[in-house]
Structure formats: C-alpha cells, structure tokens
Amino acid sequence: MPPSGRPLIVMAMEAEAAPVRSALNLETPAEKLHPAFSSKIWESPRVCLVLNGEDRRYGVDSIASQPAAITSLLAIERDRPSLVISAGTAGGFVNRGGHIGQVCLADSCYFHDRRIPLEAFDAYGNGNYPVVDLGDVGTSLGFQLGAVSTGNALDAPEADLAKMDSYQAVAKDMEAAAVAWVCEQFDIPFTALKVITDLVDSDESTAEQFVSNFEIATQRLGDATKEFIELITTEGEDYAIRT
Ligand code: SAH
Fold it and tell me: For residue range 4-51, what is the model confidence (pLDDT) as tens digits?
C-alpha cells in the first residue's frame, strides 16, 4: 500500500481521545482494525486517530505497552502514515519545571523499567528510540521539549526515578516507547505529544492527581494536538507532512 501522507495519532484512553477527535473533526464512526483486537480507527483526509479500545475481559481501556504496540502495527499496516504521534496524558516533574496542563513534545524516548543489566541487553532495555526532530514546531507552539519515558506502572519506584533523572525525562507515560519501537521497525518518523495530568515528584498521590486534573489536561491535549497537526501538515491535495 502506498503511504497515505497523513499523520497517525495513537492513543490509549477513550476519555483522552474524545476531546482530540472533537478538536480534529474526527466524528465519523470508528472502524475496527482486527477481529481479535479491540483497536479502532477514525479517519479524515488530514489525519487518522487510533485507540487501543477496551480490554475484552476487564472492560477498561487497554492502556500500557502491548496494546499500544499491536494497535500501532495494525494502523501502520493499514494507512502507511508519514508520521506517528503517541498522544495522551503523562506524569511530569516539578524539579524540571513541569506543571499540570503543560504540553510536552518528545526529543527522545526511552523505557525506564526494563532493567536488564546484561551487557548489550542494557541498551536494548532502555530503547532510546529514534524521534523525529520537530523542535522548532514545538517551541513555536510553547511546548516543552524533552525525553518521554515509558513504563508499565503508574507509580514510580526509586530505580525508575533514577533512570528518568539520568536522561532528564519531562513526561512519564505507559505507551510512547512501545509505539516508537514499532515505528523504528517500519522506518516511520515518530514523536510523542503528552499533557501533564500529575506530578511524579510531588507528595500527592499520582492516582488522585490524575483523576482531579484529567479533564483540564485532556481539553488542553485536544487544543495542542489540533495546533500541532495544523502546523505540520500543508493543506493541499494530500495534506503532505512538512518536517
Ligand atoms: N486511573 C486511571 C487509569 C489511568 S493509567 C483511570 O482510572 O482512568 C494512566 C494512563 O495515563 C496511561 O495511559 C499513561 O500513559 C498515562 N499517564 C498519566 N500519568 C501517568 C504517570 N504518572 N505515569 C504513567 N502513566 C501516566
């Protein structure tokens, strides 16, 4: 299949995706990507958005790394996007200037919880995946550039915090690096756009902050994604990406 030329946005939670779809006018009915998986896609001539969907047994959004990888694979095979954006909420860091509602754009992307102290597996575990340089676009929109760091837990034990400090992470999520790995296999440019819902290095519990700031942050995510997509795509015959 030839490249569609559209960017693809990969998201994990329906409540995060709803304001983004509405900001991007992605109001067509969702289409399932595979009979065995809950992944679903919304399309417009300018952009596509995929969601992991609900876990068939637990009935909650399929967050974290494996669904993100499967959904990315299925959507990339179908649409051959020109850029993939892992979008969603994330934890931020007070000691690196983070605040609730801050928008972060990746300039690098790692896993912080794949601790494998066995020679070359150490680097494999950390990932450090290719991230496309959209620094000028991000800066012009007032986004914070920095490392987006992924793990499969909402909390952050000491070892994870030390790893995130080593590359000065600005956003901690549960999906971006999994999406980045799939993009690397396909040689498709990747980035992550995250809005801070909670501060990892504060005394308040992450889960409580996440719930109370969720609505404000996801509205901000909708606006930020729209501004970003409008700036990186040229309105024309095929909405080619400008990178
Ligand atoms: N408790 C929530 C579940 C959200 S889990 C609920 O009941 O709805 C967190 C989701 O938001 C993941 O998809 C992850 O990518 C993102 N996220 C937000 N803050 C995070 C943090 N501090 N650490 C890891 N992921 C975070």
Answer: 789 999 999 999 999 999 999 998 899 999 999 999 999 999 999 999
Distance CA 194, CA 115 (A): 24
Task: Identify whether 198 is a catalytic site residue.
Answer: yes
Contacts of 77 (CB under 8 A, 6+ apart): 1
* Tokens (6 digits) for 40: 């679903």
Query: The whole model's pTM is what?
Result: 0.95
Q: Is 88 in the pocket of ligand 1 (CB under 6 A)?
A: yes
Spatial separation of the C-alpha atoms in residues 35 and 31, rounded to whole Å: 11
Nearest to 20 by CA among 195, 223, 238: 223
Place of tokens 């969603």: 88
227 is catalytic: no
Distance 89 CA to ligand 1 centre (A): 7
Question: Rounded distance, CA 72 to CA 52, Å?
Answer: 9
Which residue among 154, 195, 199 is best mutated to probe the pocket of ligand 1, counting the most ligand atoms within 8 A of its Cβ? 154
| Contact (Cβ atoms closer than 8 angstroms) between residue 92 and residue 196 | yes
Strands in 93-240 per DSSP E = 103-111, 144-150, 169-173, 190-199
- Asked whether 12 lines ligand 1 (CB < 6 A), one says yes
pLDDT digits (tens, 9 = 90+) for 177-196: 999 999 999 999 999 999 99
Q: What's the CA-to-centroid distance between 124 and ligand 1, angstroms?
A: 24
For residue 153, the CA-to-ligand 1 centroid distance in Å is 8
Nearest CA to ligand 1 atom 12: 174
State the CATH architecture for 7-237. Answer: 3-Layer(aba) Sandwich (3.40)
